[in-house]
Amino acid sequence: MEQNGLVPKDMQIVRKAVLIISAAIVLIVAAIVVGSYIYIKSALQPVNPNDKSVVHISIPIGSSVSDIAAKLEKNGVIKSAAVFRYYVKFKNHADFQAGDYKLTRAMTLEEIIAALKTGKVVEEMKLKITIPEGKQLTQIATIIAQKTGYKQEDVMKKLNDRSYIQELIQKYPMVLSTEVLNKNIRYPLEGYLFPATYSFPEEKPPLPTIIEAMIAKTADVLAKYEVEMGDMDFTPHRLLTMASLIEAEATEKADRQKIASVFYNRLRIGMPLQTDPTVLYALGKHKERVYYEDLKVNSPYNTYIHQGLPPGPIASPGEMSIQAALEPAETTYLYFLATPAGDVIFTNTLAEHNREKAKYIRKE
């Protein structure tokens, strides 16, 4: 206690100690901020503006941005792999090409990135595989088989090899997790082979080379949305699952963000998603129409009898559907209907939905 306006000596010591510690903390934080700024600014500059000697860099098929950054740093072409990764993400760069490149330590990050995108190596590729958006794993396996000469069953065997999938989880932890090994999931890698065009220097590359090129592409695409995924508390698995539903329901004329809003509105009120593509996936067949009897299929993928998302993706979604899953429109819609012309009609109530359905859907 203070007496006669005087502060006890021990109280003065405590106050001085607090002031000294506070000042020290401020200085440490300032030093860290300044040091980080200096480090990042330096890392963004060429390694040596005067060193134009050629450095040969080989980028294998299926390399992720992290793989490329590590190789560039190891060969002394960039100062920091971490800064390179964040720079690529911040600038939204993508579509790096595999192959052999001639780089120098005098190149800027933008010059290096441009070189990795526009190398002539693409012209030397002997195999090109195009995976359309919305294809299921079995369909992708068929495309790979047709292009390479592998048997479709051998491709599927590799895609379902549990020991190989464990290796992939270790190699691509930013996109793959043990969620894909859930016993209710039909195919662990369903939804993870990104729809795009892939080029290879061999006519028949090893299957892991093909598979990992597609997984690496998924990892690179999702890396661009890391902040949005965190905001929505989405794991890559949940995001790809939601995006696959949007992809499966979308037509060329569809507003994917509105479709996403319907799914989120249903989830919000505890309503089953009731999306027909999950029923067809559960049935394991393609049908032009889903009948009431089909809705009874006993499967964890059947969103008519199970609330929430299915256990995993039902197809490989494209980036537009991934964006829609992360940025849904703000609506009150609970229903949508695709017309034979490909238009999508959104409604708020079941009565409105049934009225539109009676207009456009022929009864059989």
Radius of gyration computed on alpha carbons? 27 Å
Strand content: 5-15%
Distance between the termini: 91 Å
Question: Whole-number average pLDDT?
Answer: 86
General form: globular
- Counting DSSP E segments of at least 2 residues, the number of strands comes to 6
- Helicity level: 40-55%
Coarse structural class: mainly alpha
N-to-C order of helices and strands: HEHHEHEHHHEHHHHHHEEH
Count the domains.
3
Placed side by side, the strands forming the largest sheet appear as 1-2
Q: Please describe the biggest sheet, giving its number of strands, its sense, and whether it closes into a barrel.
A: 2 strands, antiparallel
Task: Give the low-pLDDT segments.
Answer: none
Describe the protein in words:
It is a single chain. This protein is mainly α and 364 residues long. The chain folds into 3 domains: 54-124, 2-Layer Sandwich (Dna Ligase, domain 1); 127-223, no CATH class; 235-360, no CATH class. The chain contains 14 helices and 6 strands. The strands form 3 sheets. Strands 1-2 form a two-stranded antiparallel sheet. It has a two-stranded antiparallel ribbon with strand order 3-4. Strand 5 and strand 6 form a beta hairpin. Helix 2 (65-74) crosses helix 3 (81-90) and helix 5 (137-148) crosses helix 6 (152-159). The longest helix is centred in the first third of the chain and has 35 residues, at 9-43. It is globular. The model has no long low-confidence stretch (mean pLDDT 86). The chain crosses the membrane at residues 17-40. The record marks 249 as: Important for catalytic activity. Its EC number is 4.2.2.29. It holds the Pfam family YceG. It is found in: Cell membrane.
